[in-house]
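Postdoc handover notes: sequence design on the structure in folder B. Input tokens:
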């Protein structure tokens, strides 16, 4: 993914993240074994605060 992807804050972008997470949970459950693995697998540190919040809410 290019860096611009990680800067998107629109509701559409957040909805797409959630949709993708739901699909990955089915196809790659190993990405979700623990929070640190989850963050690594979804480039958590490269994302903006809005996307981090979406990821945090989804994981919890």
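Designed sequence:
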């Amino acid at each position: 993914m290019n860096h611009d992807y990680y800067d998107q804050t629109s509701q559409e972008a957040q909805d797409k993240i959630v949709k993708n997470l739901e699909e990955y949970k089915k196809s790659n459950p190993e990405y979700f074994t623990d929070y640190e693995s989850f963050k690594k697998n979804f480039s958590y540190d490269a994302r903006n605060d809005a996307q981090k919040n979406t990821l945090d809410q989804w994981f919890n």
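Context for whoever picks this up: The radius of gyration is 11 Å. Don't rerun without checking with the PI first.
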